[in-house]
């Protein structure tokens, strides 16, 4: 029942450390006898494994137990099991175990789309499919043990029949770490575009909707401002229709997104400079009306922008160096402690602590 005919490794975000010796030793004694077992890295021996997963069939019920080491920050973590009929997680069912900041670990049901993970909010459906036996965090190790009913196909809940062979994917990490960053990026981008639209309307009202002419600097100021506004409006639209991170065309989107963003920023800066910096501003009458206030504001803006850019770049460099140091430390640790070559493959090809691994049970009626 527990023979494995096909084993493969694929890639996704993953963060972990050493799983507790007691759990692995107890599971190891029953592996291949009472239950099926998966330890990572492949071929590792307790207590030098990074992730432990066991499964046991009892009629129409499967008992799972999955453990993963958590770093010092125990809040907002998850472990998940994905069921797919191919080697990619898209439109497939997922069982997750999560530990939130203010509550004990819990299990739930959900599904993946091409870009996101969505929870099944129907509590009754979740209770019919899953039964939580034990969830705990002890000495940095998060362990979830639960029962799963072998379900039939349910398109409404994105659940495919488990009576056919499936790939199983295991993953853990931080909850919403990337989503929050991307949401903030999108929100700030959209907010900036709306503010530009408001200022654009104010300019039209001030000029009674009339074109000021093509002469410098008024015409240049208007053209640069219009170009920057169009670029700002296009940015959030491009973000909505961006392709997935692993898509072959993602690099083209990244380049276009960056070029449009930097180009719009440069046009906006040049447009403002024409209106606030002498001798251009003299021809617009800005200094006569407002004195040095506009010039002071633009200088203050540029000082803050430069300081912010330098600070963020410095923090980014320090973070990458720390990540590289941690990656090298784990890589050396695995090379010394593990006799398998899989750890070298994973960390030499995935420097960002990333891997998906799945096992295809062609001999199991899943």
What tags apply to this protein structure?
alpha+beta, 366 residues, Immunoglobulin-like, disordered C terminus, 2 domains, 5-stranded antiparallel beta sheet, 9 helices, 7-stranded antiparallel beta sheet
Could you describe the 3D structure shown?
The chain has 2 domains: 170 residues, Immunoglobulin-like, CATH 2.60.40; 140 residues. The longest helix has 45 residues. Strand 7 and strand 8 form a beta hairpin. 44% of the residues lie in helices and 24% in strands. The termini are close together.
The percent of residues in helical segments reads 40-55%
Give the assembly state of these chains: single chain
Return Rg in Å. Answer: 28 Å
The CA-CA distance between the termini, in Å, is 11 Å
Largest sheet: 7 strands, antiparallel
Low-confidence stretches: 1-21, 326-366
Q: At the third CATH level, what is the topology name of the largest domain? A: Immunoglobulin-like
- Total count of strands: 12
Strand content is 15-25%
CATH class of the largest domain: Mainly Beta
The CATH architecture classification of the largest domain is Sandwich
Global geometry: elongated
Counting helices, strands and paired strands, the structural category is alpha+beta
**Total separate domains:** 2
Counting DSSP H or I runs of 4 or more residues, the number of helices is 9
Mean pLDDT: 71
Strands of the widest sheet, in order across it, are: 1-12-11-5-6-7-8
What string, H for helix and E for strand, traces the elements in order? EHEEEEEEEHEEEHHHHHHHE
């Amino acid at each position: 029942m527990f023979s494995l005919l096909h084993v493969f490794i694929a890639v996704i975000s993953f963060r972990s450390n050493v799983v507790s010796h007691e759990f692995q030793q107890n599971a190891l004694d029953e592996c291949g006898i009472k239950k099926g077992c998966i330890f990572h890295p492949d071929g590792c021996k307790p207590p030098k494994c990074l992730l432990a997963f066991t499964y046991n069939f009892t009629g129409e019920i499967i008992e799972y137990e999955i453990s993963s080491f958590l770093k010092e920050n125990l809040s907002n973590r998850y472990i998940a099991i994905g069921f797919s009929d191919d080697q990619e997680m898209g439109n497939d069912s997922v069982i997750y175990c999560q530990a939130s900041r203010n509550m004990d670990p819990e299990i739930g049901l959900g599904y993946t789309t091409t870009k996101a993970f969505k929870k099944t909010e129907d509590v009754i459906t979740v209770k019919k499919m899953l039964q939580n036996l034990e969830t705990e965090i002890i000495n940095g190790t998060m362990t979830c043990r639960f029962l799963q009913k072998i379900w039939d196909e349910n398109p409404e809940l994105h659940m495919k029949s488990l009576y056919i062979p499936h790939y199983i994917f295991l993953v853990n990490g931080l909850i919403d770490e990337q989503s929050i960053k991307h949401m903030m990026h999108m929100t700030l981008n959209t907010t900036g575009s709306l503010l530009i639209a408001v200022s654009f309307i104010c300019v039209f009202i001030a000029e009674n909707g009339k074109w000021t002419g093509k002469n410098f600097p008024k015409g240049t100021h208007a053209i640069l401002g219009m170009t920057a506004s169009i670029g700002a409006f296009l940015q959030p639209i491009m973000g909505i229709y961006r392709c997935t991170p692993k898509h072959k065309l993602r690099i083209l989107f990244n380049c276009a997104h960056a070029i449009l963003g930097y180009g719009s920023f440069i046009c906006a800066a040049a447009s403002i400079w024409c209106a606030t910096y002498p001798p251009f501003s003299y021809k617009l009458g800005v200094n006569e009306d407002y004195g040095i206030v506009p010039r002071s504001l633009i200088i203050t803006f540029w000082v803050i922008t430069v300081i912010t850019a330098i600070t963020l770049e410095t923090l980014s460099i320090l973070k990458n160096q720390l990540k590289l140091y941690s990656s090298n430390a784990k890589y050396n640790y695995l090379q010394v402690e593990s006799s398998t070559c899989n750890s070298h493959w994973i960390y030499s090809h995935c420097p960002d602590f990333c891997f998906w691994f799945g096992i295809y049970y062609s001999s199991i009626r899943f």
